[in-house]
Amino acid sequence: MNLEKKKTQISKYGRIVCVALLIAYFIFALTQSETFKGEMFETLSMDHKKGDMMESGWEENLEFQADYGDLQQLEMSVYNPLGNIAKGTMAVWITDENNQTVWQENIPMGRLSMAKYHKGIKGTVISVQKKIHKGETYKLHLKMKDVAKGQNIVLKSGKITVYYNGFNLKKYSMLLATILLLSVLIFIPNPLSETWNRWLSRGVFAVTPMFCYILMERFNSVSLRFIGLKYALFNLLVYGTVLMLFYMVTNRTTWAAILTVLTTSGLGLANFYVTKFRGTSLMPVDFATVGTAANVATEYKYDVNTAILWNGVLILGFIFVAVRLQCEKGFRGKKRVLPAGVFAVLMAVCFSIFSTNEGIQRFGIKVKVWNPTVSCNRYGYATIFASSIKFLVVEKPDGYSVEKVNEIMKPYVKKAEEDNKTVTKNKPNVIAIMNEAFSDLTVLGNFSTNQDAMPFIRNLTKDTVKGTMYMSSYGGQTANSEFEFLTGNTMAFLPGGSVAYQYQVKDQLGSLTTTLKNQGYQGNLVLHPYKANGYNRENVYPLLGFSKYLAIDSFKNPQTVRSYISDQEDFNKIISEYENAKKSSNDPFYMFNVTIQNHGGYDKDFANFDQKISITDASSTPSANRYLSLIKKTDDAFKNLVSYFEKVKEPTVIVMFGDHQPKLPDSFYNKVMAKNQSSTIEREQKKHQVPFVIWANYDIKEEEIKAISPNYLASKVIQVCGIEKTPYECYLQELYKKYPVVTGSVYMDNKQNLYGIDSLNDLPEDLKEYQMVQYHHMFAKKQRNDSLFYLGK
């Protein structure tokens, strides 16, 4: 077969594949008509202009005709330099033709700083959700009230956009027509000469990085104008480097371009869903938890939006153009060293910029490691993704040495020895429960429900220590919460976004489990009623001292809620394991339990889930109602567990805490947190707060704790139990008095002041010492002084 005939055959098969893909995509698009609801909008022009000061008395009255009957939301752009601490309100109301008010809301000035990315524009979204009459004339009124002088609140745009929940037939038809047009065009013969084909193929290759950049930010619904040219160049550098990698491997411009686009598309789509379900962007460290994510992937609802649908058309169109052009070979023989050389240069440039914090900070780029979505929206996804690769490595703290750690710990070695002389002889049973997504949403703000979701725990005070715990995680990364609780270590000193079980726990670590085990506790087992392989637990638990790991296969015909084993069934298993252990030994019993009932996926109904809790005000969403109903089931199950151990004669301590808050719809947070005018950091940390409770079936000192973080909780349990502790646990008990909260994103001093952790170099000296001790605990290996972290060594 001659070369020309071979090219023709390849082109023919390429067209067939493209048509098959286009037909499949057309059928898929036909099923997505619901996506084009809520896409209608009109833009109203204000009398006030961009740059006008919004002071008390500022007023705007805008007349509009309702194009549809379901008014969804308003969007405007305001510059509020004081953020959430700004004082005053903006009254917003809508009147009908009879001057009757049909909707109104007073919006705190702090909420005007709640910028969202909607339709690619950064603005303030005001949820309305009001049925009105199509075709009738209405007036939108805005008025500033009680705005403190000197706040410099400025109107950034003289436009306000009104969004309706209507069906956009025009856009939907355009999408379908474009797919059909591509299907027809692919059969039209290519009239271009070989020279033009070659140059156009090279042109497609050259524009691939820009195409990928546009594609990715469309997945993220971010305006390229907001990112700007300066930061766009860094994104183009990343996409260009990936393109040259594929070109170096395939030696074909067409295949390199297609593979780069497909890689970008896959990453962009994955990031879209990860951000939707978890609340933070997909980062390099997340790829270690692909297996865990796959375990729960079927529990979520994978809706698409119009940007995704049009991205699919753009991708297919790009492949169509690339396939129609003749695929020419690249450099031959020794000349192939040229693309390899270009790739090496690009890699060197990327390394010099992205491999260190100093490299990116030279250009004004800052990565918010515990909320990378903010950075992605500002600087572009590829830039932040590349910049985050360096966080996979844990660097030795400045000033660290084994001698320095021993010096820091010397007072606590002595104190632990003294304290351990006066411990209780009758050691209590210890049951520790980390409850999946267990939280009290009332910490976010006020909302009304038909009944309390956690009445038993809220009213539990006798022989109880309880309070609020600040978590490193929000919406996911469960394993980090249990790592912090069990080891006393904090995510503050590990790479942002990483999962300790996947990356950092490679050797034995002293933990709550080893402390209890070395005091003669039996059981020493962990129960997690789900798949055993999640977060590398099968390998990590033995390193933390556990003797046995019970997963979902240890249950027979369990009771489920939705697709997960219920907390009631889980707690029944705790009781049965306790009873079995006590049949063979009177030694105190210890067990760690990670529940599963309340796991994410709150956007789906299930026949086996009776929803008893509902929000009765405007903040109500189906997801929030389902979540609160799950919490009520947890509260009921915990009540039954406590009732059982109240009757047990042996002293028993039960500690239960949430691993993180759930990720619920933005509309819920916008409503519930609307009146919260705390500082930005305090407001954000509301989403990181969960309740904890330590209950005993015997007399203990009752206490209400305003703030603690999970790295301190195990040492608090040891203190309540009155048992022996290691020097490290003694150290943590003392550090808690100075800094009661140390998480991956913030620390708190003993005056309740919160500080963000932007750089470890800026931490107080006490926390820098904590970083050294933790590094020694986790990474010193053979040089580690085990007597600091284990009893009897």
What does this structure look like?
The protein is globular. Strand 16 and strand 17 form a beta hairpin. Helix 1 (3-30) packs antiparallel against helix 7 (306-324), helix 3 (194-219) runs antiparallel to helix 7 (306-324) and helix 5 (253-278) packs antiparallel against helix 7 (306-324). Mean pLDDT is 86; it is low at 114-122. The protein has an eight-stranded mixed β-sheet with strand order 15-14-18-12-19-20-13-21, sandwiched between helices. A five-stranded antiparallel β-sheet has the order 1-11-3-8-7. Strands 2-9-5-6 form a four-stranded antiparallel β-sheet, with no helix packed on it. It starts with a helix and ends in a 14-residue tail after the last helix. The longest helix has 28 residues, at 3-30. It folds into three domains: 40-166, Jelly Rolls; 185-392, no CATH class; 402-678 and 685-788, Alkaline Phosphatase, subunit A (3-Layer(aba) Sandwich). With 793 residues, the protein is an alpha+beta fold.
What's the total number of strands?
A: 24
User: How many structural domains can be distinguished in the coordinates?
Assistant: 3
Major sheet summary line: 8 strands, mixed
Span of the ends, CA to CA: 76 Å
Write out the strand line-up for the largest beta sheet, numbering strands in chain order. 15-14-18-12-19-20-13-21
| CATH H-level superfamily title of the largest domain | Alkaline Phosphatase, subunit A
Beta-strand portion reads 15-25%
Structural class: alpha+beta
CATH fold naming of the largest domain: Alkaline Phosphatase, subunit A
Specify the CATH class of the largest domain: Alpha Beta
Mean pLDDT: 86
CATH architecture descriptor of the largest domain: 3-Layer(aba) Sandwich
Tell me, what's the shape?
globular
Q: Flag low-confidence runs.
A: 114-122
